[in-house]
Write a structure and sequence with these properties.
By secondary structure, the chain is an alpha/beta fold. The chain folds into 2 domains: about 190 residues, NAD(P)-binding Rossmann-like Domain (Rossmann fold, 3-Layer(aba) Sandwich); about 160 residues, Rossmann fold (3-Layer(aba) Sandwich), CATH 3.40.50. It has 14 helices and 14 strands. An 8-stranded mixed sheet has the order 3-2-1-4-5-6-7-8, sandwiched between helices. Strand 5, helix 5 and strand 6 form a beta-alpha-beta unit. Helix 8 packs across helix 10 and helix 8 packs parallel to helix 11. The protein is globular and about 70 Å long.
Amino acid sequence: MVNVIGLGYIGLPTALMMASHGVEVVGTDYNKNLVETLNAGHTTFKEDGLDALFQEALKGGVRFSTEYQKTDMYILSVPTPYDKFSKKVDACFVVDAVKSVLKVCEKGTTVVIESTVSPGTIDRYVRPIIEESGFIIGEDIHLVHAPERIIPGNMVNELLHNNRTIGCDNKEIGEKVKQYYASFCRGEIVVTDIRSAEMSKVVENTFRAVNIAFANELSRICRHDNMDVYEIIRICNMHPRVNILQPGPGVGGHCISVDPWFLVGDYPQLAKVIDESMKTNDSQPTFVLNRIYEIMKENGITDNRRVGLYGLTYKENVDDFRESPTLQLLEAQERHLARPLKCYDPFLENVKIAENQYSDFDEFLEETDMVVIMVKHDHIGMNWDKLKGKVVLDCFNICPLEGVYHI
């Protein structure tokens, strides 16, 4: 039996995927309401294909509990935030989960950490806890790091098809864990050492963050000298070895906006490009906020209560709002003691996460003269006609209407 610890955006799909492919699974989470919802037969967030996967997992016997189970394999999928001052990974949730496992596990158990951590985190925080508890690593407890590699909005497909990495001390244990993931994963599964697995996951997201930062910085340069950044990127990308990303209003989620900071925190004198890239991405919502005020002034809009932000989630077509650029923008605005802008998101109509948030799109539009497209949900593409007559700031260059402003 596998006990999956943490039933959030990563742990729940992982538990369901294993259970639907013949693995006996119990999912554990400290959140009693979440567990009760799952036991009542309902998923806890929106995701394409998740409900169907949930039904298959129920047929496979998946169970949910607030209690850690006594078994020989645990998969830990708990959050790993970072300390905003030191930029280092905050491993407190991983540490707490490991301590809880040690209270109930059998000798010879395997602890798989799926949570993204900085290189060396398992050495610094996990191994000492196990040894201080009287267990011998490699005999009583086997440690494995199998970092997740999925994205909200396409979780089910990516769980099935993405390549995976298994980091371990003992290759035999790594191959054993590999078989559990191979029960559903059709991609290549690489077995390596733990530190290489830790580093590879952080580097993947850092690569993406640096490339996003380049596009965002390019948009600022072009804005400064009144050049069309989208036309320039289009032309540059005609070169066979150039692939510049598109700029946007910022970076959110719990991967690209967080993981690269782990390297900055651990290697402050070495990670200079990464540090500057993360600062660029973190300041992009403020850049958009300043752009809003420029456009308001140009169009004679003196009341920011008539300005609305479309989109509160961190990316399109999901209900995940962790670290979203819109929330970052609202926080930046709040520091200037300004009344928060209106906002609306079709994926959060029944979940209020911000002041001045509307639950009805038409009502939101009635109360605004200017709309800022912060998220490119498919929903907005079906409602361009409703934006006619509005001042529109399009942060993604997707709006087909005439006279649209861009970042």
